[in-house]
Amino acid sequence: MSSAAPAEVTAAATDQDSLAAIARARWEAFKGGEVGSLPVIVGIIAITIFFTAKTNIFFTAVNFSNLIGQMAGVTVIAVGIVFVLLIGEIDLSVGYVGGVASVAVAEFQVPGSSHDYPGLVAIGLALAIGAAIGAAQGSIIAFLGVPSFVVTLAGPGSTSS
After folding, report:
1. SS3 state at 106
2. pLDDT at 133
3. What is the pLDDT of residue 131?
4. Alpha-carbon span 158 to 136, nearest angstrom
5. Within its chain, how far is the Cα of 107 from the centroid?
6. Three-state SS for 87?
7. Inter-residue long-range contacts of 31-35, CB under 8 Å, 24+ positions, other chains counted
8. How far apart are CA 126 and CA 160, in angstroms?
9. 3-state secondary structure of 23
10. pLDDT of residue 105
11. pLDDT of residue 161
């Protein structure tokens, strides 16, 4: 005989029923094609298993530190592009502007040239160049009403093959 009060038993049974109902609903949605984040989770698990089997240093602090450092630039760009996508726009010039800014930083630090600037100054100038490109494209989108897809596709960096 259970020492739990009848209200506790009823609450536990209700929780189990609701969990079962949620599981059934998710299973039906999965069968209907609504996979949600499941492919991403399965992919991450598969990648983790693969690289763990390939090398014994995958789960080390040094490796995770390297991965975080390598992901930083791409992650910053990805966060920015998510905001653009959330408002229903498409920006195809992100890679180009990021590349121009990267080259600008390197060019502004060429040793022995007339523009051998310190690192922070070079980064500031590169940010200004990226902002100028963004302002030009944004002005065309905002003031002329040209769709962002067209402006960023036809903007600097587009190639005609």
Report:
1. helix
2. 92
3. 94
4. 15
5. 28
6. coil
7. none
8. 26
9. helix
10. 94
11. 47
Q: Which amino acid is at 21?
A: A
* Residue keyed to tokens 């949620």: 22
pLDDT of residue 108: 94
Give the global pTM: 0.61
Max Cα distance, the chain (Å): 89
Q: Quick one: CA dihedral 126, 132, 133, 134, positive or negative?
A: positive
The phi, psi pair for 92, rounded to 5°, reads -90, 0
Q: Is the dihedral of CA 82, 86, 92, 93 positive or negative?
A: negative
pLDDT lower than 70: segments of the chain: 1-15, 156-161
3-state helix, strand, coil in the chain (%, to 5): 70, 0, 30
Q: What are 95's two structure tokens? A: 């890679």
Length of the chain as a residue count: 161
Cα(161)–Cα(150) distance, integer angstroms = 17
Two structure tokens written together for 62: 């040094």
Find tokens 């992901």 and name the residue.
Answer: 71
